[in-house]
Amino acid sequence: MQENLHETSNNSTSNGYSNWSRICDVIVELTEAGLLAKESNKIPLTLRNQVWKLLKTLLNDRQVTPGFTLQYQGSNMSAYEASYNTVRGKAMHAVVRYAFWIRQYTNDNAVPSQNFNDLPEVQEILDHHLDLEQDPSSAIRAVYGQEFPYLFNLASEWTLHNIDKIFPESFEFQSIFEAAWEGYIFNEVYTNIFSVLRKKYNYAVEQLSVINSTSRQQLKVVELVVLHLLNLFWWKIIELGESDSLLEKFFANASVSAREEFIRKIGWRLLYGNFEVNEELRQRLQKLLEWRINQVKELNISVEQVSDLKYFSWWFASGKFDNQWAIAKLVDVFKLLGTVHHCNNFFEHLEILASTLPQDVVQCLCLMADSNQANKWFVSCPTDCHPGILRAILQSEDKVAQKIAKDLINRLLARNLGDYRELIS
């Protein structure tokens, strides 16, 4: 089989994908399926040697080379994608499945191992391909990143010992870090793995300031970093004011769109998601919002740097916060940005508050009317709630709010921003 591999590797088709590669694809996929199958269909342990010979041969596939790395990058395929679309990449993934397969048979109820003493063949392969002189492929580095949580589960001591080889923090090996990080970040967030990789999260967040905004792969990685950090914050694993300032670094280094996505995703969970919001989480969310507002007020950063605050409208519309606090912060955001993002239930929630907090609500309407987006608020996205909000204010017992509302109605009528004459007739 090894000889056939060497012969056919040099006879690839014009697109670089040989018939032999297709055969190898099928072999590795069938092998991995047998390793992962339920007990009745699982490959028996008696075939351990044969399975390993197959994997070891597939791991020598020549398709994944430095030249191929350039080829898949030119085709807009990421390192992570290439790891699942090349024979050697698939075989490397299958090695991890093989290790779990052996452990299930031989170590079913034992304490998780810290090393590969019982799997020397696996450690030999992992050490070999982790050596850049032996295997410089970015696709293979993505495998180490993708499989990092599982490698840690299989052999925590080995994994910790090699963490800086898998995720090197230096300019010289930046592409290696990016490939491994891309593979890793596609995983769900595991709190125990985060504690191991927190330093790497910091490094990745520091690199956000130099992300290529036109790269599809890098933008996807940023999107997943946002999701990881959001979940870690939501679960109280990371906080503002910690010694490594991880959350603060994110807002300092991330792009405008990444910061906006962080605040918007919180808003989506509050407005549409089936997520519990207890008092502790509510207080932490309020602290985050106030911190972002204070960055403009106290640290003199530009308004453009806190454009993410426009998605506070989603938080507000959810009704998950104290009404007095929420309307006050909405006013603050309007004063800073001149606008917020229009979302479902926004005006409906304003109407709910209009009778109990009429001055605050009418102040919001005035800020909308005075902004350069007044036409959007009152004409382009018409809503039946506008008259209801103003009517509730006029019917309240707050004389100051009533006067402000009447003045606002006259200004809106003069500017042809809606017809509210019935309210003051």
Detail the topology: elements first, then pairings.
Layout: H1 2-9, H2 19-36, H3 48-58, H4 66-74, H5 79-83, H6 87-106, H7 120-130, H8 138-146, H9 148-154, H10 156-161, H11 163-166, H12 174-185, H13 191-206, H14 216-234, H15 246-253, H16 256-271, H17 279-299, H18 312-318, H19 323-337, H20 346-354, H21 358-370, H22 374-380, H23 385-394, H24 399-414, H25 421-424
Helix pairs in contact: 2-3, 2-6, 3-6, 8-12, 13-15, 14-16, 16-18, 17-19, 18-19, 18-20, 19-21, 20-21, 20-23, 21-23, 21-24
How many strands in all? 0
Multimeric status of the protein: single chain
Shape: elongated
Number of helices: 25
SSE string, helix = H, strand = E?
Answer: HHHHHHHHHHHHHHHHHHHHHHHHH
The proportion of strand residues reads under 5%
Note down, in words, how this protein is organized.
This protein has 425 residues and is mostly helical. The protein is 66% helix and 0% strand. It is built from 25 helices and no strands. The chain has helices spanning 2-9, 19-36, 48-58, 66-74, 79-83, 87-106, 120-130, 138-146, 148-154, 156-161, 163-166, 174-185, 191-206, 216-234, 246-253, 256-271, 279-299, 312-318, 323-337, 346-354, 358-370, 374-380, 385-394, 399-414, 421-424. Helix 2 packs parallel to helix 6 (87-106). The radius of gyration is 29 Å and the shape is elongated. The chain starts with a helix and ends with a helix. Residues 1-16 have low confidence and may be disordered.
